[in-house]
Amino acid sequence: MLDTFFFYAFALLTVAGAALAVTMRSAVHCAVWLIASLLGTAGLFLMQQAEFLFAAQIVLYVGGIMVLFLFVIMLVNLEAAARERQMRKRWPIALAGVLLLAAGLARSLEEGIRLPAPRPAPEAAAGNVQQIATVLFGEYLLPFEVASVLLLVAIVGAIVMAQREDAR
Amino acid sequence: MYDKFIPTAADYVRFAPEILLTVFGTLIMLIEAGRKEDQRRPYGILSLIALAGAIYLAFPAYNNAGPAFQGMLIVDGFGTFFRVLCYVAAALAVLCSGQYLSREKADSGEYYSLILFSVVGQGVMVTANELLMVFIGLEISSIATYVLAGFLRDDQRNNESALKYFLLGSFATAFLLYGIAWIYGLTGSTDLSLIRAALGSANPPNVILTGTAAALMFVGLAFKVSAFPFQIWTPDVYQGAPAPVSAFMSAGPKAAAFAILVRIFMTAFEPIAARWEPILWVTALATMVVGNFAALAQVNIKRLLAYSSIAHAGYILVAITAQSQIGISAVMFYLAAYTFMNVGAFAAVTHLAGKDEKYVNIEDLAGLGQRQPVTAALLSVFLLSLIGVPLTGGFFGKFYIFKAALDSNLVWLTVLGLLNSAVAAYYYLRVLVVMYMQDASAEVPAPKPVSGGILVALVGSAVATVILGVFPSVILNFAGKSGTLNP
After folding, report:
1. Distance CA A130, CA A133 (A)
2. Which residues in chain B (178-207) have CB-CB distances under 8 A to chain A?
3. Is B133 in contact with A142 (Cβ distance < 8 A)?
4. What is the pLDDT, as a whole number, of residue A162?
5. CB A112 to CB B121 under 8 A?
6. Can you give the pLDDT at residue B453?
7. How far off is chain A from B208, nearest CA to CA, in Å?
8. What are the chain B neighbours of A22 within 8 Å (beta carbons)?
9. Of B136, B137, B147, the CB nearest to A157
10. Which of A44, A113, A142, A151 to mutate to test the interface with B (most CBs of B within 10 A)?
11. What's the rounded Cα separation, in Å, for the pair B95 and B405?
């Protein structure tokens, strides 16, 4: 009972935060609502007993990335952009698309989603973090390593783009 | 239990080309850090060595074909073919870049590093057997390409190109990622063979949800191959980017995106093939029509080639719609032919554009037949191949595509496709007419003689185009053998 209550509370926080993040006019407000949405997701992770993801979500996204977002928003003058007419002219098309998708989803929920059988429960002996480590450095070793190339490319790209001309 | 933490020797052999390219990409940046302003810059040569080494290493990998790194990658004939194709496309782009960068005074190591990293991403993509690897590979390739598109930071056109490509590209990748998340939720796996097993099982997940997931992934990939209605970015980005980068973008990342589109839809989504066939049918036709008819009105040759590349994506989608082994072989052959003829045409544009890319209108090519008979002749080979004239690779490419379509009873799509390629002949021939029949205008200075890397790229592409047109079997045998995708 209490579980259900918390699930709906976190789900509401996630969805409402996301909706407000895209509809608010001021960029700072958008970022703050995105933080709320991410906190909701973190709560959902916790309810799934994924403690590691819960901690990572808060430390990395809420603590790290979103603070960086706010810094950038405050450094760049977005006041002018907020006064511009926003691109909302096509909203009827977007609404039609969303309604169509919602109808399809409702229809398939009626039929029953038929999800795959859940995987066997992990061994109780190993902790959550330890299990993640086993999977990350065993089965998913290559994606983990190749992601570092992705980060390297992003850093090189950012430096190329941001470098001052006389420093060349 | 710790065995699985240590990759086997076979894993390394199968992944060796990408490891080599990553090492060289990093090495170039390290060398640049230690160089003084006036010292020689060997980055182009180093990149070519790296790419040649990667092509060389792709063969032992192929001889040891099989899955690598716990099934994350699968090295098979199909993957090897596209791997080598992407390396070759990058090598051709590197050959064109040296002169271009020194002309624009932007010679630097990062440019070459980014090209190498981009190719690493494409290599990961075409051999990926896991949606996670597909995503990481696609992002490496894309981010490097976004930066390359805006590499001349003080050029307004470069900025526009990079910004448009980056914003729309990130949006498209988000669609792909969302689709992957849905698929994971529905099938409990991101492994292509396991997804196929789940979708083809006696009790498959709800088909509406599976269809939505497949559609989301299709949107992401259709953007990368610039299929209708996600093609709008292509002309602006190709026009604004530096010419050698446009050459690269139109070949490597595109071939890799097609490869992974074919692999995902022909393996993982094969059990629901009947449902996505109509979507592919319409997309293929619309892409051909939009590309060809918009190209008719272009005055800028880079935009013309951009629209032409959209049209060619449409032809390739026709072969994918056929959903057969011969269709896959046709896709492989066409992309090989397309790479050479398109990169060749862009190489010629790179040379003729002049400093700051001042001369990129079709009218600026007037009189090229007299001024530079060799360049004009080589460009003619590429344009004739793009039309699909016999004795060029483009002819056999189209021939196999439409043959595959007819074999799968796609009669209407074949007829409409052939009509489209007749329309296409008009705008390619117009360039030829301007080159040979019109007198040079005094406002356009005679281009300097072609030399160095661009000449090598031009002649190499032209020779490859003609070889594919006269002896198509060199590639076709391999493509025919590798057209089976083992789930």
Report:
1. 5
2. 185-188, 198, 203-206
3. yes
4. 83
5. no
6. 86
7. 6
8. none
9. B147
10. A142
11. 36
- HEC sequence for chain B: CHHHHCCCHHHHHHHHHHHHHHHHHHHHHHHHHCCCCCCCCCHHHHHHHHHHHHHHHHHHHHHCCEEECCCCEEECHHHHHHHHHHHHHHHHHHHHHHHHHHHCCCCCHHHHHHHHHHHHHHHHHHHECEHHHHHHHHHHHHHHHHHHHCCCCCCHHHHHHHHHHHHHHHHHHHHHHHHHHHHHHHHCCCEHHHHHHHHHCCCCCCHHHHHHHHHHHHHHHHHHCCCCCCCCHHHHHHHHCCHHHHHHHHHHHHHHHHHHHHHHHHHHCHHHHHHHHHHHHHHHHHHHHHHHHHHCCCCEHHHHHHHHHHHHHHHHHHHHHCCCHHHHHHHHHHHHHHHHHHHHHHHHHHHHCCHHHCCCEHHHHCCHHHHCHHHHHHHHHHHHHHHCCCCCHHHHHHHHHHHHHHHCCCHHHHHHHHHHHHHHHHHHHHHHHHHHHCCCCCCCCCCCCCCHHHHHHHHHHHHHHHHHHHCCHHHHHHHHHHCCCCC
Domain map (residue ranges) of chain A? 1-80, 125-168
Q: State how far the Cα of B309 lies from the Cα of B244, in Å rounded to an integer.
A: 15
The answer to whether B405 and B322 have CB atoms below 8 angstroms apart is: yes
Q: Which two tokens stand for residue B318?
A: 């026709």
Instruction: State residue B262's pLDDT score.
Output: 93
Read off the pTM. Answer: 0.90
Q: How far apart are the CA of A101 and the nearest CA of chain B, in angstroms?
A: 9
Asked if B271 contacts B192 with a C-beta cutoff of 8 angstroms, the reply is no
Note the pLDDT of residue A29. Answer: 86
Residues of chain A with pLDDT under 50: 167-168
CA distance A54 to chain B (A): 18
Q: Which of A108, A147, A161 sits opposite B208 (nearest CB)?
A: A108
* A143–B133 CB contact, under 8 Å: yes
Closest by CA position to B172, among listed B123, B230, B118:
B230
Closest-approach residue (CA) in chain A for B37: A168
Chain B residues touching A141 at Cβ < 8 A: 5, 7, 69-70
Cβ of A160 within 8 Å of Cβ of B185? The answer is no
Q: What is the largest CA-CA distance in chain B?
A: 76
Give the model's pLDDT for residue B268: 87
Above 0.95 for ipTM, yes or no? no
Q: By the CB < 8 Å criterion, does B35 face chain A?
A: no
Ranges of chain B with pLDDT below 50: none
Q: How many CB atoms lie within 10 A of CB B283?
A: 24
Question: Residue B73: beta bridge partners?
Answer: B68, B128
Q: Which phi and psi (to 5°) does residue B470 adopt?
A: -100, -40
So what CATH class is A1-80? mainly alpha
